[in-house]
Write a structure and sequence with these properties.
single chain; binds magnesium ion; binds guanosine-5'-diphosphate
């Protein structure tokens, strides 16, 4: 399993090492602010979150009499951490069994890493003693069903699937019945990320959600949105669509390992107001880790 430090290597070496250098042993000048803004934007922190961060730092610099760049760096790290954990509370994954059947709905655009993340989640829940069942509700592509079934076989986790183009709501319904019959306590539902139109996709996801909700009290108990970090700011617009259609309780941010756009994590939490629960750090089963805001910011500012 890759360390967070390795996962964020590209974001750090291409951008945050420059922030480090900028906020070194020197006095703050007008240029310091301009360069800092440019670097945050390059890291895909996004315009509104970058402005918010700079405003807070300016207020603090005035109030606390900060004139040295190295003190501004400390303040920046604090503010970055604050962005990632807005309520001060950590959104940690919880594997304790609280109900007969916990339903986790996973949504996101095609290729974002849903199916892979579901396999990783299934392994985690299983390793925590949970009995997992998977539902292949991405019936739009036959390959998507096969992919989930292959992961299921590798993990020894049952997969409920329908025929290609089957009604995803019907598959979801069957999966709930199968979960009860087999006394499984965790149902993870894979969904399509692309249909003929975005409207169709959102309608289909709402339908799956409603089927789950009618079949299991308060389901889905988690709705996780998978976001591909390499999409940077574009991912934010997609995310808004999913959040409006099905409600999203948490984000799995994938492919951080291959991108300098790791700053998108700040934009996601700040502009969507949705916590990041996990990071995808590679393509293997163990490449998923609970999101830790402090460790994340620390890894961005480590020395290479
Ligand atoms: N490097 C990297 N690749 C990932 C990660 N998560 C998924 N992938 C890859 O992204 C591609 C699409 O993943 P998939 O799960 O099929 O996406 P889906 O269409 O949303 O179900 C696959 O090649 C995965 O191996 C990650 O965290 N890091
Ligand atoms: Mg898939």
């Amino acid at each position: 399993m890759a360390s967070l430090r390795e996962t964020l290597a590209r974001t750090r070496t291409s951008i945050f090492s420059k922030v480090q250098a900028l906020l070194g042993q020197s006095d703050i000048t007008a240029e310091t602010w301009e360069d800092l803004e440019a670097l945050l934007l390059q890291a895909d922190v996004g315009v509104s979150t970058t402005e918010k961060l700079l405003e807070r730092l300016r207020v603090r610099a005035n109030a606390e009499g900060i004139t040295r760049a190295e003190r501004l760096r400390e303040a920046l790290q604090q503010e970055l951490r604050a962005v990632l954990s807005p309520n001060g509370a950590l959104a940690q994954p919880d594997y304790a069994r609280k109900r007969l059947l916990e339903v986790i709905l996973v949504v996101g655009v095609n290729g974002s890493g849903k199916t892979t993340s579901i396999a990783k989640l299934a392994k985690r829940y299983r390793d925590h003693g949970r009995s997992v069942l998977l539902a292949a509700c991405d019936t739009f592509r036959a390959a998507a069903i096969d992919q989930l079934q292959i992961w299921g076989e590798r993990l020894g986790v049952p997969v409920i699937a329908g025929a290609p183009n089957a009604d995803p709501g019907a598959v979801a319904f069957d999966a709930v019945q199968a979960a009860f019959a087999r006394k499984c306590d965790t149902l993870i539902v894979d969904t399509a990320g692309r249909l003929h139109t975005k409207h169709n996709l959102m309608q289909e996801l709402k339908k799956v959600r409603n089927v789950l909700n009618r079949a299991v009290h308060e389901a889905p108990h988690q709705t996780l949105l998978v976001i591909d970090a390499t999409n940077g700011q574009n991912a934010l617009n997609q995310a808004k669509g999913f959040a409006e259609a099905v409600g999203v309780t948490g984000v799995i941010l994938t492919k951080l390992d291959g991108t300098p756009k790791g700053g998108v994590a700040f934009a996601i939490v700040d502009t969507l107001g949705i916590p990041i629960i996990y990071l995808g750090t590679g393509e293997k089963l163990d490449d998923l880790e609970p999101f830790d805001p402090d460790a994340f910011v620390r890894a961005l500012f480590e020395n290479d």
